[in-house]
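Board notes (copied after class):
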Amino acid sequence: MKRLWTRPFVIVAAVGHLCLHSVWATQHLVSPGQDWQQLADRVRPGDEIILMPGCHRPATLDQLQGTRGNPITIRGLDPKRPSIIEASRYGLVLHQPQHVVIENIVITGATICGLVADDLASTTARFPTESSPPTPRKPWRANLVIRNITITNTGPQGKRHAIELSGLQDVRIHDVHIEGWGGSGLELIGCHGVSVESCRFIAVQDYSQLHAIQIRAGSERVNITQCHFQGIAEAVVVVGGSSKLREFRPEIPPDADSRSHYEARHVQLQRCTFLGGTCPIVLAHCDDTLMRNNTFIRPRHAVLCSTAEPTDHRIAPTRRAIFGGNLLVWEPGDLRRLVTIALADDAESFVFEESLWWSTEPAAQRARLGTLPGARQTPQITDLDPKLDDELRPTEPKAAYFGAKAP
């Protein structure tokens, strides 16, 4: 392990940008094959852990504590040649990170999770005993940034996630490429204030890839924009779920009113592209979901589904969903229904604004797909071929304002 330099007011020319550190900052250089977990006790605000080009060991780092002006950065030296973490069970695990940036690395081959970040104090807290301290009641204010990383070959089967974030607040995930996983590409458990932007989730052969993203256990304020989902077999984005009560952040009080809590609230899904999937979007015990200006190509069952599984009486069924400005294209025989809503859910609170629905399916066959729910009915466009180009952008001028490529 080497230190490149340590001095006050260091200006680091790193990957095309300048970072001004107003404290004594150290760059910790990690050579391929070295055990770099020991750095957790030595890293200070403003420091960088730099993985040199090559293949690196997995690591678990407890309580990396940066500051708003001086975050701790974990990065590869050269973004054009990202350093590779060859995972075993896990790739990179961060417990109670605060003001941490992860960038320019590849994580591959994890059998359980590629990247884990949570609100627990240590790895032992992930496997609690009777003497373990109680789980924090509120999300940990992480201010975590994950950008320009690639995670491949996680799993391949079961609930093995490429990225798992638990009990965190304020997380930005940008320009992340995920390819091949078991459960979810991104699993958000009790997380608040998360942005997921310009990420790609690509399914590959021999991996189950149940979901691209799942948002559950009391997660709130999650914005997903300009993401690309390709080849996921089942539910692509799941807003909600059926979580264990101990997973919720904040904790659900024992005396909470019936139907007073949700698996997910205030989720926005905009300008995303879905290629395939049994049901691209699934809502499960969630409130206030916005789905606008997305492109859906050849879903295999329905475009939007809601489910209501019996859980604790304090968990409410789904309500308040807005679906509009979307572009949907399918081949004859692809769909069984346009939308399916569980009987327990508040279908009257769903709003379907104008969207463009296109298929060469005969009118009689389309009629069997059913109508859209909701108390307010808005006319939909069903007779306009968007004439998509190779980038799935409408070339028909009247269709230009629908879907992920809308201006």
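Comment from the instructor: The longest helix spans residues 363-367. The chain has one domain: 87-399.
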